[in-house]
Design brief:
By secondary structure, the protein is mainly β. The protein has strands spanning 11-13, 22-25, 27-30, 40-44, 49-55, 66-73, 82-88, 92-99, 106-111, 122-129, 136-145, 169-170. It has no helices and 12 strands. The relative contact order is 0.31.
Length: 171
């Protein structure tokens, strides 16, 4: 019989080599704070953000797609300031919100398969809303994990024929 083996969704960024595939507004690689290594991503300017386009369509049906990251702010935030993670899969939805200070790195886990469909135009956005253009947030060690669903055998193919999902595409 034809079987396929679950794989691990292999995507991570620790920002040691720059901002890579991220679209960034008011931010850059920074060595001011890092959860691990030397660098993290830094964004500021009251509405700064960083956004990643990632094709997760081949992982439809997965039940364990997880986004993990470490984040902190510069320690000067007031109760009206916020750090937000948004997911786009046809429309934007909030996946995580933190208000006020977070002046030490903390690890956050977000269950992505509970936030709508895993599509080819999936986006992950980290953003801030602050009352001061000099307030900053830092993100490090972004990791997306999960098992690739077992691909069913198609009717009419021999027992030796298997269809395997393609690797994860990031653009």
């Amino acid at each position: 019989s034809c079987t396929t083996q679950d794989g691990v969704l292999p995507w991570s960024d620790g920002f040691e080599s720059g901002m890579g595939n991220w679209t960034v507004s008011s931010g850059a690689q920074s060595n001011m704070y890092a959860a691990t290594g030397t660098y993290s991503a830094r964004f500021q300017n009251s509405t700064g953000y960083m956004e990643l386009n990632i094709d997760l369509s081949l992982y439809q049906g997965a039940t364990d797609i997880n986004l993990k990251f470490d984040w902190r702010n510069d320690g000067g935030w007031e109760f009206t300031d916020s750090f937000v993670v948004e997911i786009y899969n046809g429309s934007w939805s909030q996946a995580y919100v933190h208000t006020y200070n977070q002046d030490n790195f903390t690890e956050i886990n977000v269950d992505l398969d509970n936030i709508g469909s895993l599509t080819s135009s999936y986006k992950i956005k980290f953003r801030i809303n602050t009352d001061n253009s000099t307030e900053e947030a830092f993100v490090d060690d972004v990791l997306i994990t999960g098992s690739i669903p077992t691909t069913p055998k198609l009717t009419g193919l021999s027992d030796a024929t298997c269809i395997s999902p393609a690797p994860l595409t990031v653009w």
